[in-house]
Amino acid sequence: MLEALFRLLFEYRPVVFKQGEFRFAPTSGSYVALGLAVVAVAIVILSYRRALARAAAPAGPQGGQPGRTLILLALRLGLIAVVALCLFRPVLVIKAAVAQQNFLALLIDDSRSMRIADGPAGSRGDFARQQFTDPSQGVLKSLSDRFVVRTFRFSTSAARLATPEELSFAGGQTKLGAALEGARQELAGLPLAGVVLVSDGADTTDAALRDALLSMKAAALPVFTVGVGQDRLARDIQVDRITTPRRALKGTSLLIDAVVRQTGYAGETVTLDVEDGGRIVGSQSMKLPPDGEPASVRVRVMAADAGTRVLRFKIAPREGEAIAQNNAREAMVEILDRRERILHYEGDPRFEMKFLRQAVKEDKNLEVVTLQRTAENKFLRVGIDDPEHLLGGFPRTREELFGYRGLVLSNVEASAFSGDQLRMIAEFVEKRGGGLLMLGGPRAFAEGGYAGTAVADALPVVLDRAVHTADGDNLATRLSIRPTRAGESHAVTQIAGSEAASAARWPDLPPLTSVNRIRAIKPGATVLLNGIDDRRREQVVLASQRYGRGKSIAQAVQDSWLWQMHATISLEDQTHENYWRQLLRWLVDDVPGAVDVHAITDRVEPGETVTLVAYVVDPAFVELNDARLTAYVTAPSGAVQELPVQWSGKRDGEYHATFTAPAEGIYSARVEATRGGKTIGSSVTQVRAVPSDAEYFDATMQAPRLQRIADETGGRFYTNADLAGLPEDLQYTGRGVTTIEERELWHMPIVLVLILALLSAEWALRRKAGLA
Amino acid sequence: MKKLILCVVVVLAGAAAGYAQDRLLGRRTPQNYDSINIGYDGRLAFVRLRFASGFGGFGRRGSGREPPWAHDYPTADIHMMKIVNELTTAGPHVDGSNIYSLDDPDLMNHPIAYMSEPGFWSMSDDEARGLRTYLLKGGFIVFDDFRGQDWFNLEEQMKRALPESRFVELDAGHPIFNSFFEIKNLGFLQSYNASQSATGHPTYWGIFEDNDPKKRLIAIANRDNDLGEYWEYSETGTEPVDFTNEAYKFGVNYFIYGLTR
Asked: Are B190 and B223 in contact (CB under 8 A)?
């Protein structure tokens, strides 16, 4: 609309003004006219001087109006100036492409999202075909009249399009940057007027466009983008994002967050189902948010079966949905069936130790080794598999301590450790990446003398140095335990079948006692459980934080076993068991081993290259750069490929290997590390090679991205509405073989409009003053 | 061992037991238990189980006013906790103890309980349910001070609470005899004449969770033995020190086991 008005008034398209150079091209007659104009101006000024003098007089029939006279003077002079300007022949000098002397790169998106039927006539692909594949019609006809058009189709990369039939709109990815770069390189050396990019703009790659755009800018090659499709779908539900852990222990109840976005179904209730091999393993209903707003939903999934599980999160398509494919997303989780070793150091014989062990005794994936101090320098060892194990008490070397994945310090005072042991405990979290849990009691936290120690640095709570160390006189406070807002949705605090049932269950639990008055947490820590005493004062009961590579958890109560024994708890109640299983599983969740391998991305397109990244440390968790690593990649067919894994040279202990995943399916990569002939360890990771359905996500036409490409390269962004102007605009890019053209400006309609406006204004003013 | 002997001497000289005995019992049966119970505050406390006597146990011994469950109360209880306090890091209450019936909700706050003279024990249905819940949730009970035919009443009462349970004789290899002290000879300590014993010497019997000897011991019975007697009279010098030491070793091991397994 605005552009049509511009063209009506200024005769030419904006690009002509943008690209052209303004000049005057006067003839000899122009100077004669200039002389006449000067005379005319002088006459005008003289005639108005008398009027001005009269107007300046304080009284008289026409006195007191100098302002109006000045305006009349200005209008008359302006009119003369406009006419004089036109007589000097203003022109735009512009470089116009010579017809059929220049090449034009035409890039057409060939990805699956072009199949979405929200184009002006059918699908986006249909629109692209109509306008850009037949030289006898559509925009391509106009382009072909002016340029030698080289057409490319692109998804992951650009390839020349020989026939329109080659457009299949089946590409699994859209890589705009790669496509632009590919076309530029292929046509390098040719007089290229510009690039036309026909796409919905949905770039599914994470790689930034910036690099590709930089090279286009360096080559001064403008990209004219044509957006196909709608920038808002009328009715659609999309599972936006799924956050799953990479690995989980078998038997863990996973709480997985999904983000759902929709248009056209606000307020409706839908169900998010989780499928594992076609079997529904989790389900959660949700009310859809307002249009365009993301809503988070948490669904509980039991990691029941070991192995690599591909979980499918799905909302059943609704009536009238534009895209059904974006209602489901898949995520791969490796369910580990192994025993995670936890060292539990209990400072005093007390029931907390007994019931903790009882709570997890049936959990085959947790191995709790308890070092129970029963008297000074006297220990009871429970759960050991070697008579020599922990014979000397708490580990004195990093190698021994770091063999565990979790460490529970239960009511054991800081002075029970040497300075090096305290540092070891902190390093257990920070460097080894283990989980540290400190349990409350008169010998724990500040009361246990930990303030100012290395362990205090690792803990998520602030220890008060003023608190005296344990002397046995600490009075216990009864606390009613409640989850915080963050705690309500945390996996550890789920003590009933659903989040709501869990939140309702907490107030029913019997109060516990605490002798550790913790009021403050570290920045970055999260409080999951609070305790409220009889005077309604609140204190921290369960808090956690990341510390270095690991995590630390503080639980400031001393008798959680009351959740098992208390008279109000039934014999069948599993609250205590569930709580401790969840807490200890969380403690060792994702704790790294001596060898840890993962793929940069857990899904690739069939035929793509997979990069494996492995980290290797020695038993003291010092990074090793001289280890010998071999990867054994098992293809879906069962064939095993042996690969060397090389030190990256960028980071200590980091090794890389790559392989190609030609066939569709799951590839399992096991990396084994040795050093000096001794085995360090091994680790396994999986990668899925499957065609991506990412094209159907965020599949609306991405106008801002296309606009950015055009703006940064000096091109222009078009939609169906203004596509007709594309061929003419391309003609004035100034690139390729051009000819200089002069465009006269004096006969622009705006000049006539200006003259008429000045005349009308003068006439109207005179009428008002009674002068005409 | 030296430390244990020293502790026994300390206890012998201690005034606390006498104080408790005079103040709380004076060889009389307490009537208002709430007023003398120390309750639960997060610390370990001795719990003695009281019961109605099925055989007219009141007046059977002593002054004639003492029920069988209260034998050696409170001196034995306090002495035992003092020994636990001196030898271990458990930090129990040494200034009082608790008396609960088996259907008392407060019993659940104390997962170790002691019963004296189970030969005279009888239970209401509520108490039987209470005991079953207590043991299956994680409680541990010690039966002491009985001999001869008393055993059959103990078995019968336990069958009421846990019909599926059965007592199994324990040998010195069981972890309860190694939880703190290594007790290698279970026959050393004797409280009764051989003629008073069913087998001629003391034996130790246990009930296991799910009747599986690999699992947790939920009850132990000092058959034909009376540890409480040694605990009580350790201050008087009327019992041999070796026997008293041995009785405390059993007691400490029972508490450490009950706290940790």
From this structure: no
